[in-house]
Amino acid sequence: MTAAYEHDYGYDSDYDCDVLVVGGGIVGLSTAYALARSAPGTSVTVLEKESGPARHQTGRNSGVIHSGIYYRPGSLKARFAVRGAAEMVKFCAEYGIPHEVTGKLIVATDRDELPRLHALVQRGRENGIPVHELGPAQMAEYEPEVRGVAAIHVGTTGVCDFGAVAAQLAEVAGASGTRIHYGEEVQAVDRRPWGVAVRTSTGRIVRSKVLVNTAGLHCDEVARLAGDDPGMRIVPFRGEYYELTRPELVRGLVYPVPDPAFPFLGVHLTRGIDGGVHVGPNAVPALAREGYDWGTVRPRELAATIGWPGSWRIARRHWRYGAGELHRSLSKRAFAEAVGRLLPAVTQDDLRPVAAGVRAQAVLRDGTLVDDFLIRQGPRTVHILNAPSPAATASLPIGREVARRALALLP
Predict the structure, then answer these.
(1) What is the pLDDT of residue 11?
(2) Which of 43, 78, 160, 285 has its CA 20 to 30 A from that of 262?
(3) Same domain, 208 and 245
(4) 349 in the Ramachandran plot: left (φ > 0), alpha (ψ -120 to 50) or beta?
(5) CATH no. for residue 333?
(6) Do 279 and 269 touch, CB atoms closer than 8 A?
């Protein structure tokens, strides 16, 4: 497949491609896929700094196909997640990618959470999602070991292997002529009236009419390289996971009622396509954009995070929440106690650490955690500046939207 990317597909001699996509995660590859399907004559190149696709947010999550129940009606997240969930199931079925539509429970563990649970029911119905309210006895039919005062069942939630989805998107796009170059980190962007020229870490120069920035954890940096002010910064939050050593305790997917003040869904239980049950994630500040453990510290990136006014405003506003998350990161006992609110049978000994992920969370100068997907345009550029979860679920419609915008910028 790699050799096919080196063929000459008749690109305009003044350019190496019409559209250059920076970032080979699921959103970037969905964009290339959408361009290949909607505009077959358009030449596309993808640059990815890692040695393969989906090495960060795409490949380090719980693999949940989200229903769209949490998101404000009319928002990009709501529209794209609801549409994307159905499309993702269809895509997986078409290409033989392991997946399952399991449904999930969202559980209120005490009566104070009932108003928020009922608000989720209303929001789900506004978003066109089938939602069923359950009492404790009905909950036990789905999850005998889970405890709560009430729950809702969301039938359209599922699980899949998003890394395999990204690889399939790359294969299909590549077969249509897209050039995908791995090991190519963008280091400089020169924007001119005719388009953009990009220089990578290997010295490769790529000239393009339009640049699409889907660089995830580094999207704000790429935007600044291109001369655009993103108006936000990526503040990385690490999500730490455990795996249940007794997976028989959980049949499917179990979530707490989320706090609407945060874009995080809380520690939840996810039975994956391999039959194992992931527990997590929490949300603690990462000390590097790819800081998957406390030992990974990159001083330049950490200084940029600390130097952003929004970071301090988050800390002042939400220090109690942050202190709790930090405590659960440093104490396995505290993490187990948090899980025990949903699953009383769980103990410390039932939790085995597994790979963590990092959420690329956009934060505005005033400390606002950007809640919706954020897509901004500049001259000859399209930047995707906030695309954490549920971006993997919504990747196919996001890719079409980004492709549409990119095509509109072509001369």
Answers:
(1) 40
(2) 160
(3) no
(4) alpha
(5) 3.30.9.10
(6) yes
Whether 113 maps to a domain, the answer reads yes
Note the pLDDT tens digit of each residue in 25-45.
999 999 999 999 999 999 999
Are both 257 and 378 inside the same structural domain?
A: no
Residue 196's domain spans which residues?
Answer: 3-57+163-231+372-409
Mean pLDDT of the chain: 93
Question: Do the domain assignments include residue 94?
Answer: no
Asked whether residue 90 is domain-assigned, the answer is: no
Other C-beta atoms closer than 10 Å to the C-beta of 147 total 17
pTM of structure: 0.92
d(CA 132, CA 140): 14
| Same domain assignment for residues 137 and 12 | no
Cα atoms in the 13 Å half-sphere on the side-chain side of 259: 8
Would the CA dihedral through 66, 256, 63, 59 be positive or negative?
A: positive
Report the alpha-carbon distance of residue 111 to residue 50 in Å, rounded: 47
Task: Locate 208 and state its tokens.
Answer: 């393009």
| Rounded-to-integer distance, Cα 391 and Cα 65, Å | 10
Q: Count of alpha carbons within 13 Å of 225, Cβ hemisphere only?
A: 22
For the stretch 299-317, what's the b/e string if a residue is b when 16 or more beta carbons lie within 10 angstroms of its beta carbon? eebbebbeebebbebbeee
* DSSP3 helix / strand / coil % (the chain, rounded to 5): 35, 25, 40
Q: How many structural domains comprise the chain?
A: 2
* Alpha helices for 196-331 (secondary structure H): 219-225, 299-307, 309-317, 319-330
Same domain, 200 and 218: yes
pLDDT beyond 60 at 326: yes
The answer to whether residues 245 and 355 belong to one domain is yes
pLDDT band of 320, cuts 50, 70, 90: confident
Helices (H) and strands (E) in the chain, counts: 11, 20
Same domain, 46 and 141: no
Q: What residues have CB less than 8 Å from 394, skipping those under 6 apart?
A: 66, 77, 80, 81, 83, 84, 85, 373
Are 345 and 405 members of one domain? no
- Indicate whether 329 belongs to any domain: yes
Same domain, yes or no: 119 and 239:
yes
Digit-coded pLDDT (tens) for 145-170: 999 999 999 999 999 999 999 999 99
